Amino acid sequence: MHPVALTAESPPGLRRRDLAPAVAVAAGVVVLRVLLSGRYGFHRDELVALAAGRHPAAGYPDQAPGIPLATRALSAAIGVHLWPLRVLAGLAHGAVVMATAALAATVGGRRQTIGLAALVAALAPLFLAQGSLFLPPVFDLLWWALAVLVVARLLAGADPRWWLAVGALVGVGLETRGTMLLLAAGLAVGLVAVPEGRAQLRSPWLWAGAGVALALWLPNLAWEAGHGWPVADVAAGVRDHVRADGGLLDVARRQIVLAGPAALGLAALGTAVLARRPWRPLLVAVGVVVVLVLATGGRATYLGPLYVPLVAAGAVLADRWIGVDPTRWHQIVTVVVVAGLIALPAVTPLLPPADYGSLVHDIDGQVGEEVGWPEMVHLVGTVRRVLPDEEQDGLMVVTAGSGEAAAIDLYGPAEGMPRGTALSAAAGARDRWPDGQPAGTVIFVRFPRRVVEQFCDSLGPVAAVGNDARVPNRAYLADIAVCRTLRVTPGELRAGLARWSDPEM
Asked: Quick one: which of 34, 71, 45 has its CA closest to 369?
């Protein structure tokens, strides 16, 4: 069998016919996301993005501005609702499925190959998890997938003006999540390292695309420079966290869980396909990204977008083994589907919360961060209400994480706590701590008692956070303590608590 590469000049009818299986798979992904869009509640990091979006800026200490500003725009247009955000995240996952399928076609896949690549992109555990939340990772994944797809088509002979699209995708990606810089560096090295890439460097459209990327990134770049490069602090926090979890060995080991057996197998095959002309710049880019992630102490999930080109290319080689044998086709589809169905309850809000907590929470605890935030805020409100009236006036809440502060920001008004009542010394909320606050009684959330006692005459803990489903998360069983008299100034309190607060979002 000799597959024919699909280039920009391929007949549109052929392209539509070959992509039909992928369209069906992507539609199934979107339908699933719509069905799950109203379950559980906002994830901790979604709450942080909502809170950040209420303070529009060209950058934030703990994240790029794209998602916070998008949540602000959506909230202004339709109000603060969970389901529209989750549907949009699901649409992004569906688009990743289509981009992976189109990439498989570009590198020489036929209809069966394209369907296999789409199915793996739909059911890989990491993609299922990221597509469940309106957060930077799923959109970062999408911009990577589209950028790699366009670069592949350029290597196959597409109109060089498409470099402008690559630049736009890289620029938007940098405003979404800083990890897009890894792809930009990888592509740059890949284009310089092999002859096929160096031929592209002679096109003025490539340099124009680089200019587009820089222009789109410039607002955030200027903000970072003007604020002392807080992205370096976030990177240091990530690096320390990765080292504490086992370093390089843990990053490698987690790929088995994050990718799943099907994506890992196809990714291994994909390296052989990308080693051929004209795809070699993409293989070099993949290698550079892996080296950079490992060398800088990045998270295991930073390698996730690499599975898009590797799975797409690997499906081409797997198709040669499958051939026209229906038994082999059924075997590989069964493996992909079963692995995806096993992962689904652990990485999406599929089960009732109590069942998730008791059965699969320990597999991936991130879904647990979608549970219990209204209950936590209600408990803080209850503690506030039992205080004397004179202590309720001017009372402030200080939280160990920006997630708890963001939850109080959203749900607090219904409990008599207006926005601005909650402060946090965590990186994402520290710059929104007003000078001279707190000036009266303080309720501390999720600080150990030994920490609070350094700064005040703590009476706590007076309560512990729970939730109806007993799902563990970052705030579950956290202490709530009341402080009536601070021993330090508000500024000293903020500085002293910073090292006890969450280092990054």
From this structure: 45
d(CA 116, CA 316): 9
In the chain, what's the furthest Cα-to-Cα distance? 82
Over residues 393-420, mean pLDDT: 92
Distance CA 255, CA 264 (A): 8
Higher local confidence (pLDDT), 240 or 138: 138
Q: Give dist(CA 86, CA 83) in Å, integer.
A: 5
Average pLDDT over residues 140-152: 97
User: What burial letters (b/e) apply to 14-41, b meaning 16+ CB within 10 Å?
Assistant: eeeebbebbbebbebbbebbeebbebbb
Judge residue 105's burial from the number of C-beta atoms within 10 Å of its C-beta, 0-12 exposed, 13-18 middle, 19 or more buried. Answer: buried
Q: 10 Å Cβ neighbour count for 465?
A: 22
The average pLDDT across 59-87 equals: 93
Q: pTM for the full model?
A: 0.91
Distance, in Å, from the CA atom of 320 to the CA atom of 247, rounded to the nearest integer, reads 37
String of DSSP letters for 250-284: HHHHHHHHHHHHHHHHHHHHHHHHHTSTTTHHHHH
